[in-house]
Design a protein that fits this description.
By secondary structure, the chain is an alpha/beta fold. The protein has eleven helices and five strands; from the N terminus they run αααβαβαβαββααααα. α5 links the parallel β2 and β3.
Amino acid sequence: MRLSASLLALLPITIAAAQQQQQKPLQSWLDKAKSYIPSAASAPLASAAAKAAANNVVTLTKDNWRSVLTPSTTDPFEGPESWMVFFSGGNKTCYGRCTRVEQAWNESAALLATDPSAPKLAYVNCDKSPVLCTTWAAAAPTIWHIQLPVVAPDQSKPATTIRILGLNTTTTTTRDIVKIHTEKTYEKRPVYEGALHPFDGWVAKSGLSVPLGYVLFVFANVPSWAFMIVISMGSRYVMSRRMGGPQQDVNRAHRSAPLGGAPPANEPVAK
């Protein structure tokens, strides 16, 4: 009887531990897998993770992102469809500091591919697709967690939920990225509702996303000294017009006066 009572007392603790373990199966597997990987195998592991990520991650560009980020189902009961879009870059947009974060992303993409409930994954290189990044006003490195609504035939389109998670270039790990899905850490971030929202912002609804993206791209890449030269030339032109205005009127009057002091043509000649 005493043994049975002890087992009954331990039963709730056992059930709670089992539930916690079920909530984090991928996290537990990740920790165990990394404990068996020697440090000397880090380079081959990074290479393998990059290859696995390439097979499981869709590369977005300014030409294909609208067709890619579309729900794969028409059943509203199966939505919304979740995506994790990773924005990265090279020397131009990330100043060469995204290498470590990209390795963590590749490893997490390989792990999330084994989870049927994981969100779909996409990747944007802001060095190669600068217009897309400026159109979205996306910085590198960040992960955009997007929930695409599935529209019912007799209903209007619900809002597309976007949450933006910034990534630290030195401390972000594979575990941090995996936890975005396993522990839903994206819910800690506010829902993005800005004017540059790529789906529901007024700029997108007005059809101005792409033109504005090109304008912002030009302004971001034109050197500051070029703007200073244009401003200096414009200010000099305006000042010259203002300073030389009265003198120009006097010169114009002298040029229009008849030679020899003759009366103007519209005055009668005295006899």
